[in-house]
Specification:
- It contains four helices and six strands, in the order αβββαααβββ.
- The protein is α+β, with helices and mostly antiparallel strands.
- It has helices spanning about 25-45, 110-120, 140-155, 155-160; strands spanning about 45-65, 70-90, 90-100, 180-185, 205-210, 215.
- It is about 25% helix and about 30% strand.
- The strands form two sheets. It has a three-stranded antiparallel sheet with strand order 1-2-3. A three-stranded antiparallel sheet has the order 4-5-6, with no helix packed on it.
Length: about 220
């Protein structure tokens, strides 16, 4: 049965709201990007092109009302920085891309991002295939994010209802190492999708999906 959400008070989300957005002149931002591009290309002769280097800033407001009496509103800001660079050497060509988002300018530092992306790109040269075998693997944050994307699809309540999740019949069972705990937190401070309420006006909350390897439930 489908029904409208009932009114419920959502606690205000303590997320930074950047009142300094849109105050930096575009030419000043362009000058900063131009200096970083020049610095990147000068740092190593194998770096041949900066394919993209950009800032983005957004301020948004949302509101939701329903005939059931729901009335909610929220506002937020976000800034992001992205880059894509190319390197060539010895007949090899590699490209690396990265991106970061934060709720306010003061929480976004592009320079470590650029340096990490540069080092990752240059480390790709001279890579060789490993013999087939079993190896311990350490995931970096970006690869770990890809793994979480896969798991998020399987932990979707909609996927479970449609029989499209391999976890559908495993609630209460061990599905991972005891070292693994997964939490869906719609109120995570500074989170990319944090909000005081969801699209139906239901207050956001913290939900444990996997606890010490045991499947506790799904998200909707």
């Amino acid at each position: 049965n489908r029904r409208l959400a009932r009114p419920a008070r959502a606690r205000p989300l303590k997320a930074p709201f950047d009142r300094g957005l849109f105050r930096t002149p575009v030419k000043a931002l362009q000058g900063r990007l131009a200096r970083w591009e020049k610095s990147l290309l000068a740092s190593d002769s194998r770096l041949t092109k900066v394919l993209a280097l950009s800032f983005d800033e957004t301020a948004s407001a949302s509101a939701g009302v329903s005939t059931a009496g729901v009335g909610v509103e929220d506002r937020s800001t976000s800034v992001s920085f992205s880059l894509e660079i190319m390197a060539e050497s010895g007949g090899e060509t590699h490209v690396a891309w990265d991106w970061r988002r934060a709720p306010a300018w003061r929480a976004l530092d592009p320079e470590p991002l650029m340096e990490g992306n540069r080092l990752r790109l240059l480390s790709a040269f001279g890579a060789e295939p490993l013999p087939t075998g079993t190896y311990p693997v350490l995931f970096d944050p970006r690869t770990g994010g890809d793994v979480l994307d896969f798991l998020a699809a399987a932990l979707s309540g909609e996927a479970v209802r449609k029989g499209q999740s391999f976890l559908a019949d495993k609630k209460g069972r061990r599905v991972a190492s005891a070292a693994v705990t997964l939490v869906d937190d719609g109120r995570l401070p500074g989170g990319a999708a944090s909000s005081a309420y969801d699209d139906e006006g239901v207050p956001s909350s913290r939900r444990v999906l996997v606890s010490r390897g045991l499947l506790k439930g799904f998200y909707y």
